[in-house]
Amino acid sequence: MTAALALLCLAGAAGLDILANLLLKASDGFRRPLPGVAALALVLCAFGLLGLSLRAVPLSVAYAVWGGLGIVGAALLSRHLEGVRFTPRAWAGLALILGSVAVLHLGH
Q1: Residue 81: CB atoms within 10 Å
Q2: Is residue 107 very low, low, confident or very high in pLDDT (cuts 50, 70, 90)?
Q3: What's the pTM?
Q4: Residue 78 in 3-state DSSP?
Q5: CA angle, corner 35, sides to 29 and 36, nearest 5?
Q6: Which of 3, 19, 61, 85 is the least buried, fewest Cβ under 10 Å from its Cβ?
Q7: How far is CA 105 from the centre of its chain?
Q8: If you average pLDDT over every residue of the chain, what do you get?
Q9: Cα–Cα dist 22/84, whole Å
């Protein structure tokens, strides 16, 4: 697997993780089973893509990228969809997450 394809799998895994988190929120604590089951299915698919990316990307980098993009993506989507307001400290936290993932990626 090429590095570009591995990074594409990793980006796909992060995207599926973000969608799964949105569906988990929509499931209302699994009171609505369909979004909850869909969230679980998407998490399984995300893990599959994460596993494929490990063929060319070190585990430390892959997990950091997947987790970091998932956190930042979910936070930004909750801001957009639910009107969550971020303080300057929250923005700084998101920037630190992205910065640390970038530094870890560049270190390998």
Answers
A1: 10
A2: confident
A3: 0.86
A4: helix
A5: 50
A6: 85
A7: 16
A8: 94
A9: 14
Q: Which amino acid is at 41?
A: A
Residue 40 has, within 13 A of its CA and on its CB side, a CA count of: 7
Determine the Cα–Cα distance for residues 64 and 79; give it in Å rounded to an integer. 22
- Asked if 72 and 14 count as a contact pair (C-beta separation under 8 A), the reply is no
Q: Decide if pLDDT at 54 tops 90.
A: yes
CA–centroid distance for 14 within its chain: 3
Q: How far is residue 66's CA from residue 92's CA, in Å, rounded to a whole number?
A: 19
Q: pLDDT category, 33, cuts 50, 70, 90?
A: very high
* 65 CB-contact burial (10 Å; exposed 0-12 / middle 13-18 / buried 19+): buried
| Cα separation, 74 vs 62, whole angstroms | 18
Two tokens, residue 32: 């609505």
Contact 15, 53 (CB under 8 A): no
